[in-house]
Amino acid sequence: MPTCSNVPSQAQVDQAIEWLVKLRFDAPSPRTEQQFQQWLAVHPNNAEAWQRVSNMSDELAGLPGNLSRRTLEGSQRQRTSRRDHLKLLAVLAVGGSLGWTAREPLGLPSLMADSSTTTGERRTMQGSDGSRIQLNTTSAIDLHYTRDLRELTLLRGEISLDSNADDNRPFRIATRVGDLATQDGQLLLRDNSLGLLLAVRRGEVTLFPSSSTPYRAHSGEVLQVSADGTFKPAALHGDPWGWTDGVLSVQQMPLGEFVAELARYRPGMLRCAPEAAGLKVSGTYQLADTEQILQLLARSLPVRVDYHTRYWVNIVLS
User: What phi and psi values does residue 151 have, to the nearest 5 degrees?
Assistant: First the structure.
């Protein structure tokens, strides 16, 4: 039976978890790094599996180093099964927000989410109520409609929602920082390391509608909402809506930040050397061709793009 070419197998996800242990929680030798590069290059799905697993590294990095290293190394010694690895990571999630995002990055069946995207994929869908929903790279949502309510759960990643104003049912959105509500809003939501980015293009969006002090965000507002529920105007170096048109549009964005954004759309590892991270990037770049974006960076900035393999790329000062 044919399989989807961009969906990692269970074995590939297993291997990616083992590489996470070796590279993120040990001091890898040059030989280990070389072996990892070879593994990435063997099959494109290896890079996709690595991308999904490594998306959790920031969350794991927030845990005590000794706990993460000791626990993960212990699992490696015991040669636990894939299910045991997933249980282990679920245990580690108690220390942070990993439980919210763990399903899709680890390559669990996409059927667990009503709709999801892989690295570099963007998808547009229409809800049964006529609302238009776009999913950005590595995102997942659940949808549920009842007679009285429309509900969307942002499981991970980034979405835009253009709610059908002709439907009189309120639209409730669940996120890991809390609930939002709208009826006729056009909004963008991005789950990020600080909590949740909210941008409103049309209509009104209510933050924490069930609280004693709900906040109504209006057209033009862009807010960064923290995990503790506080929020403030977001300071951005680009257009948060750009990806909905297939572009990365930035103004004076530090190169390190730009590379981190671009890495979301590429399988494998894309890194920026610290000495180049402060260079500024401006322009509009087509997300459909990340290789071309790298070439443009090399032509417009004093940097060099070093390819260790197709899936391991460093940007350094030239």
Answer: -130, 135
